[in-house]
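Homework help board

Subject: predicted structure for assignment chain

Our instructor gave us this sequence and asked us to write out the predicted structure in token form, then describe one feature. I got the tokens but I'm not sure how to describe them. Can anyone check?
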Amino acid sequence: MDRDMVNCLHYLYQWGDIPLSKLEHEGTRSMLFWCGPDTRYPLRGMEVVVEDTQAQVLRVPPGILNLIDSIESQLRSLPNPDFVFGYPFSAAIRAVGEQRPAFLAIPYASEFDAVKKVILDAADSTGFKCEVTGDLRSSAGTVMDQVWQGIRSADVVVAEITGKNPNVYYEIGLAHALGKEVILITQEQAVPFDVRATRRIKYDPLDLPQLRIELQDAFKQVSARYPFEGAEPRF
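My token output:
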């Protein structure tokens, strides 16, 4: 959808039916809500808005209104894993036994290489496969689009916040906006106020086996997306 379409939905949601006479004047676009020259009568013929030729109005079907109400309700606070757009509908449903997707936000510095390996091993041992921010740099395409797609596809995001790396915190913000479960790990005692309520593991870099144990426990507590998580299908 472009801005014209969003504006039209907004007006219809707030005002109800809009008379076609208010949208047209001698065959040209009205300035009621069109903001760009790219779309002419943008929502006619689409499922989200119908043109009632008998009543000479545009209206939003009740089912779409209910969907908008549901989304608005979810977005009155930070989303949780039930957020309707938290996952891509275009992605195939994961098969039974297939590893669950996870995303790892971690600084690129070599000092975190051993920590990264521990996180990936803990994920693998509990049925997860982590996509890593730094590994995307050599891939074709826009890195931030790939980061967004990786986070949106993930069941959980793990973030290493030692040193308060701004890239890592940006990715935490994306994860929270999508309603993702986030596991923070850090070598530091104090963390910023904004993330204090997030599940957090403080670890000693000289005791990475203990970090692995705590991460395994955290991965096991990630909420189930499908009924077959960790078991055979129930249907």
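Reply (TA_rk): Your tokens look well-formed. For the description, you could write something like this. The longest helix spans residues 3-15. That's the kind of observation they're looking for.
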